[in-house]
């Protein structure tokens, strides 16, 4: 299982699939709601919306109404790209190692860096 470069809370852009003019999600930007590293998928807000038909049911807590629910489905991580906070365009992600000194100890920290502008993410 490879380590993903996209984390929960990141702003990403869809780079694959049908264009928005054809009813697709390519070019849409959204916040990552959840990451599923074991399946290499991410859940993005407002992207890959699917409708689910629910049957009315009765549970111990009460009655749930039936109908059509619309919610997001996971999308493969290779189909999204992190958005550079500086210019709001998609960018590749790199890492830079920094030595940080805290409480008299020095430790090496990996920092995510935008390949487009070189800024920290």
UniProtKB/TrEMBL annotation:
* UniProt region (Disordered), positions on chain: 96-121
Which Gene Ontology terms cover its molecular function? Answer: rRNA binding; structural constituent of ribosome
* GO terms for biological process, alphabetical: translation
- Whether Oxidoreductase counts among this entry's keywords is no
SUPFAM superfamilies attached to this UniProt entry: Translation proteins SH3-like domain
KOW domain boundaries:
5-38
Compositionally biased spans, kind Basic and acidic residues: 96-106
| CDD domains for the chain | KOW_RPL26 (cd06089)
Question: What's any one GO cellular component for it?
Answer: ribosome
Q: What are the UniProt keywords, alphabetically?
A: Ribonucleoprotein, Ribosomal protein, RNA-binding, rRNA-binding
Pfam family membership, one: KOW
Q: Which PANTHER family match?
A: MITOCHONDRIAL RIBOSOMAL PROTEIN L24
Q: How does it assemble?
A: Part of the 50S ribosomal subunit.
HAMAP family the record matches:
Ribosomal_uL24_B (MF_01326_B)
Give the protein's biological function.
One of the proteins that surrounds the polypeptide exit tunnel on the outside of the subunit. One of two assembly initiator proteins, it binds directly to the 5'-end of the 23S rRNA, where it nucleates assembly of the 50S subunit.
What is the name attached to this protein's record?
A: Large ribosomal subunit protein uL24
């Amino acid at each position: 299982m490879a380590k993903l470069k996209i984390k929960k809370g990141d702003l990403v852009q869809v780079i694959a699939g049908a264009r928005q003019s054809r009813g697709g999600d390519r070019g849409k930007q959204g916040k990552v709601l959840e990451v599923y590293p074991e399946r290499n998928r991410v859940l993005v807000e407002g992207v890959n919306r699917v409708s689910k038909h629910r049957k009315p049911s009765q549970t111990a807590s009460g009655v749930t109404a039936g109908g059509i629910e619309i919610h997001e489905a996971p999308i493969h991580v290779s189909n999204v790209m992190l958005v550079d906070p500086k210019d709001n365009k998609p960018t590749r992600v790199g890492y830079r190692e920094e030595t940080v000194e805290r409480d008299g100890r020095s430790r090496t920290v990996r920092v995510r860096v935008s390949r487009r502008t070189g800024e920290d993410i």
